[in-house]
Amino acid sequence: MKGKEWYQQETVVESYEDKRFSRGGGRLTDQLEKEAVGEALAPVGDKKILEIACGTGRFSVMLAQQGADVVGLDISAPMLGEGRAKAREAGVDDHLEFMRGDAARLPFPDDHFDAVFAIRFFHLADTPEEYLREMARVSKRQVVFETYNRSSGRSLYNWALPMGSRLYSRREVDGMLDAAKLRLVDETHEFVVPFGLYRKLPGGVAKAFRRVEEAVDRTPLGDRLASISYWNATVE
Protein backbone atom coordinates (compact mmCIF):
# COMPACT_ATOMS: atom_id res chain seq x y z
CA MET A 1 0.00 0.00 0.00
CA LYS A 2 1.51 3.32 -1.10
CA GLY A 3 1.85 5.97 1.56
CA LYS A 4 1.48 3.52 4.45
CA GLU A 5 4.32 5.09 6.45
CA TRP A 6 3.61 8.66 5.33
CA TYR A 7 0.02 8.65 6.63
CA GLN A 8 1.18 7.46 10.05
CA GLN A 9 3.50 10.39 10.72
CA GLU A 10 2.30 12.68 13.51
CA THR A 11 3.45 15.80 11.65
CA VAL A 12 1.48 14.81 8.55
CA VAL A 13 -1.70 14.11 10.50
CA GLU A 14 -1.54 17.38 12.44
CA SER A 15 -1.78 19.44 9.25
CA TYR A 16 -3.65 16.95 7.03
CA GLU A 17 -7.12 18.51 7.00
CA ASP A 18 -5.93 22.08 7.35
CA LYS A 19 -3.87 21.83 4.16
CA ARG A 20 -6.50 19.96 2.15
CA PHE A 21 -10.01 20.85 3.24
CA SER A 22 -10.15 23.90 5.49
CA ARG A 23 -10.08 26.80 3.03
CA GLY A 24 -10.65 27.94 -0.54
CA GLY A 25 -10.91 25.21 -3.13
CA GLY A 26 -10.15 22.52 -0.57
CA ARG A 27 -13.33 23.39 1.30
CA LEU A 28 -15.28 23.10 -1.95
CA THR A 29 -13.86 19.65 -2.78
CA ASP A 30 -14.62 18.51 0.78
CA GLN A 31 -18.24 19.58 0.31
CA LEU A 32 -18.53 17.92 -3.10
CA GLU A 33 -17.01 14.65 -1.90
CA LYS A 34 -19.32 14.54 1.11
CA GLU A 35 -22.30 15.12 -1.16
CA ALA A 36 -21.16 12.24 -3.41
CA VAL A 37 -20.78 9.86 -0.46
CA GLY A 38 -24.07 10.93 1.11
CA GLU A 39 -26.00 10.49 -2.14
CA ALA A 40 -24.47 7.08 -2.84
CA LEU A 41 -25.27 5.67 0.61
CA ALA A 42 -28.61 7.40 1.24
CA PRO A 43 -30.71 6.84 3.20
CA VAL A 44 -28.23 6.08 5.98
CA GLY A 45 -30.45 6.20 9.07
CA ASP A 46 -30.06 3.02 11.17
CA LYS A 47 -27.66 1.49 8.64
CA LYS A 48 -24.53 -0.29 9.83
CA ILE A 49 -21.70 1.13 7.70
CA LEU A 50 -17.96 0.43 7.43
CA GLU A 51 -15.58 3.03 6.06
CA ILE A 52 -12.25 1.71 4.77
CA ALA A 53 -9.27 4.08 5.14
CA CYS A 54 -11.37 6.49 7.17
CA GLY A 55 -8.44 8.80 7.96
CA THR A 56 -9.53 11.58 10.31
CA GLY A 57 -13.17 10.56 10.00
CA ARG A 58 -14.64 13.35 7.93
CA PHE A 59 -17.07 10.97 6.18
CA SER A 60 -17.65 8.68 9.16
CA VAL A 61 -18.61 11.56 11.44
CA MET A 62 -20.97 12.96 8.81
CA LEU A 63 -22.76 9.62 8.44
CA ALA A 64 -23.01 9.13 12.21
CA GLN A 65 -24.61 12.57 12.44
CA GLN A 66 -27.19 11.37 9.93
CA GLY A 67 -28.15 8.39 12.11
CA ALA A 68 -25.91 5.57 10.90
CA ASP A 69 -23.89 3.25 13.14
CA VAL A 70 -20.40 3.51 11.68
CA VAL A 71 -17.08 1.73 12.02
CA GLY A 72 -14.08 3.60 10.62
CA LEU A 73 -11.00 1.50 9.87
CA ASP A 74 -7.54 2.86 9.09
CA ILE A 75 -3.90 1.77 9.31
CA SER A 76 -2.81 5.06 10.92
CA ALA A 77 -3.15 5.40 14.72
CA PRO A 78 -2.62 9.21 14.62
CA MET A 79 -5.36 9.58 12.00
CA LEU A 80 -7.73 7.52 14.15
CA GLY A 81 -6.90 9.68 17.16
CA GLU A 82 -7.99 12.75 15.21
CA GLY A 83 -11.18 10.95 14.20
CA ARG A 84 -12.06 10.04 17.78
CA ALA A 85 -11.57 13.63 18.89
CA LYS A 86 -13.77 14.84 16.04
CA ALA A 87 -16.50 12.32 16.93
CA ARG A 88 -16.50 13.43 20.58
CA GLU A 89 -16.70 17.07 19.54
CA ALA A 90 -19.66 16.30 17.26
CA GLY A 91 -21.38 14.25 19.96
CA VAL A 92 -21.58 11.07 17.87
CA ASP A 93 -18.94 8.89 19.55
CA ASP A 94 -21.69 6.53 20.75
CA HIS A 95 -22.55 5.79 17.08
CA LEU A 96 -19.01 5.68 15.74
CA GLU A 97 -16.16 3.28 16.47
CA PHE A 98 -12.66 3.72 15.09
CA MET A 99 -10.43 0.68 14.62
CA ARG A 100 -6.88 0.18 13.44
CA GLY A 101 -6.62 -2.58 10.86
CA ASP A 102 -5.59 -3.89 7.47
CA ALA A 103 -8.14 -3.47 4.68
CA ALA A 104 -6.84 -6.65 3.00
CA ARG A 105 -7.84 -8.73 6.06
CA LEU A 106 -10.92 -7.16 7.56
CA PRO A 107 -11.62 -8.35 11.13
CA PHE A 108 -15.34 -8.88 10.56
CA PRO A 109 -17.53 -11.87 9.63
CA ASP A 110 -19.28 -12.20 6.28
CA ASP A 111 -22.29 -9.95 5.65
CA HIS A 112 -21.61 -7.88 8.77
CA PHE A 113 -22.46 -4.42 7.39
CA ASP A 114 -25.28 -2.97 5.33
CA ALA A 115 -22.78 -0.93 3.32
CA VAL A 116 -19.01 -0.63 2.96
CA PHE A 117 -17.25 2.26 1.26
CA ALA A 118 -13.76 3.60 0.55
CA ILE A 119 -12.90 7.10 -0.70
CA ARG A 120 -9.35 8.25 -1.59
CA PHE A 121 -8.10 4.73 -1.08
CA PHE A 122 -7.87 2.74 -4.29
CA HIS A 123 -5.33 5.10 -5.87
CA LEU A 124 -2.89 3.83 -3.22
CA ALA A 125 -3.82 0.14 -3.47
CA ASP A 126 -1.17 -2.36 -4.51
CA THR A 127 -3.68 -5.26 -4.74
CA PRO A 128 -7.03 -3.56 -5.46
CA GLU A 129 -8.85 -6.78 -6.36
CA GLU A 130 -8.02 -8.21 -2.94
CA TYR A 131 -9.31 -5.13 -1.13
CA LEU A 132 -12.54 -5.00 -3.11
CA ARG A 133 -13.24 -8.71 -2.49
CA GLU A 134 -12.84 -8.12 1.25
CA MET A 135 -15.21 -5.16 1.11
CA ALA A 136 -17.78 -7.29 -0.71
CA ARG A 137 -17.34 -10.16 1.73
CA VAL A 138 -18.30 -8.14 4.81
CA SER A 139 -21.19 -6.27 3.15
CA LYS A 140 -24.74 -7.57 2.95
CA ARG A 141 -25.80 -5.20 0.20
CA GLN A 142 -23.73 -2.25 -0.94
CA VAL A 143 -20.13 -1.40 -1.80
CA VAL A 144 -19.09 2.12 -2.85
CA PHE A 145 -15.58 3.06 -3.93
CA GLU A 146 -13.69 5.64 -5.93
CA THR A 147 -10.95 5.44 -8.54
CA TYR A 148 -8.72 7.90 -10.39
CA ASN A 149 -9.14 7.62 -14.14
CA ARG A 150 -6.36 6.74 -16.57
CA SER A 151 -7.91 8.72 -19.44
CA SER A 152 -8.13 11.96 -17.45
CA GLY A 153 -5.78 14.93 -17.27
CA ARG A 154 -4.31 13.45 -14.10
CA SER A 155 -2.27 11.07 -16.26
CA LEU A 156 -0.23 14.07 -17.51
CA TYR A 157 1.27 14.84 -14.09
CA ASN A 158 0.74 11.69 -12.05
CA TRP A 159 4.38 10.68 -12.50
CA ALA A 160 5.52 13.88 -10.77
CA LEU A 161 3.58 13.30 -7.54
CA PRO A 162 5.65 12.13 -4.53
CA MET A 163 3.79 8.81 -4.23
CA GLY A 164 2.10 8.76 -7.59
CA SER A 165 -1.35 7.26 -7.89
CA ARG A 166 -2.79 4.13 -9.38
CA LEU A 167 -4.92 5.10 -12.38
CA TYR A 168 -7.67 2.81 -13.62
CA SER A 169 -9.25 2.12 -16.98
CA ARG A 170 -12.92 1.22 -17.24
CA ARG A 171 -11.93 -2.33 -18.20
CA GLU A 172 -9.91 -2.70 -14.99
CA VAL A 173 -12.81 -1.50 -12.85
CA ASP A 174 -15.22 -3.89 -14.58
CA GLY A 175 -12.77 -6.74 -13.99
CA MET A 176 -12.47 -5.88 -10.30
CA LEU A 177 -16.25 -5.80 -9.92
CA ASP A 178 -16.61 -9.19 -11.59
CA ALA A 179 -13.88 -10.73 -9.43
CA ALA A 180 -15.56 -9.44 -6.27
CA LYS A 181 -18.98 -10.65 -7.48
CA LEU A 182 -20.39 -7.15 -7.40
CA ARG A 183 -22.99 -5.72 -9.77
CA LEU A 184 -22.65 -2.06 -10.70
CA VAL A 185 -25.88 -0.13 -10.12
CA ASP A 186 -24.71 3.47 -10.51
CA GLU A 187 -21.63 5.49 -11.42
CA THR A 188 -20.72 9.16 -11.15
CA HIS A 189 -17.78 10.84 -12.86
CA GLU A 190 -16.43 14.09 -11.43
CA PHE A 191 -13.64 16.66 -11.40
CA VAL A 192 -12.44 17.52 -14.88
CA VAL A 193 -10.14 19.86 -12.95
CA PRO A 194 -8.24 17.54 -10.58
CA PHE A 195 -8.97 18.38 -6.96
CA GLY A 196 -5.24 18.69 -6.28
CA LEU A 197 -5.45 21.91 -8.30
CA TYR A 198 -8.68 22.96 -6.59
CA ARG A 199 -6.89 22.96 -3.24
CA LYS A 200 -4.52 25.67 -4.46
CA LEU A 201 -7.28 28.02 -5.63
CA PRO A 202 -9.05 30.77 -3.67
CA GLY A 203 -12.68 29.97 -2.95
CA GLY A 204 -14.14 32.32 -5.57
CA VAL A 205 -11.84 31.03 -8.31
CA ALA A 206 -12.58 27.42 -7.36
CA LYS A 207 -16.32 28.07 -7.62
CA ALA A 208 -15.83 29.60 -11.07
CA PHE A 209 -13.88 26.50 -12.16
CA ARG A 210 -16.70 24.37 -10.77
CA ARG A 211 -19.28 26.18 -12.89
CA VAL A 212 -17.19 25.46 -15.99
CA GLU A 213 -16.93 21.82 -14.95
CA GLU A 214 -20.68 21.54 -14.57
CA ALA A 215 -21.10 22.89 -18.09
CA VAL A 216 -18.62 20.32 -19.44
CA ASP A 217 -20.41 17.58 -17.46
CA ARG A 218 -23.53 18.23 -19.51
CA THR A 219 -21.69 17.41 -22.74
CA PRO A 220 -20.72 13.95 -24.08
CA LEU A 221 -17.11 14.68 -23.07
CA GLY A 222 -17.90 15.18 -19.40
CA ASP A 223 -17.62 11.59 -18.20
CA ARG A 224 -14.64 10.85 -20.43
CA LEU A 225 -12.57 13.76 -19.08
CA ALA A 226 -13.46 13.29 -15.40
CA SER A 227 -10.50 12.53 -13.15
CA ILE A 228 -12.50 10.65 -10.48
CA SER A 229 -15.22 8.03 -10.66
CA TYR A 230 -17.54 6.90 -7.87
CA TRP A 231 -18.77 3.32 -8.28
CA ASN A 232 -21.91 2.15 -6.47
CA ALA A 233 -22.32 -1.62 -6.52
CA THR A 234 -24.50 -4.26 -4.92
CA VAL A 235 -23.45 -7.69 -3.65
CA GLU A 236 -24.70 -10.49 -5.87
Question: How would you characterize this protein structure?
Answer:
The chain has a single domain, classed as Vaccinia Virus protein VP39 (Rossmann fold, 3-Layer(aba) Sandwich), CATH 3.40.50.150. The model has no long low-confidence stretch (mean pLDDT about 85). The two termini are about 25 Å apart. The chain is built from 9 helices and 8 strands. By secondary structure, the chain is of the alpha/beta class. Strands 1, 2, 3, 4, 5, 6, 7 and 8 form an 8-stranded mixed beta sheet that branches. It is globular. One of its GO terms (biological process) is methylation. Its EC number is 2.1.1.-. One of its GO terms (molecular function) is methyltransferase activity. This is Class I SAM-dependent methyltransferase.
Provide a short characterization of the protein structure.
Its EC number is 2.1.1.-. Pfam families: Methyltransf_25. By secondary structure, the protein is of the alpha/beta class.
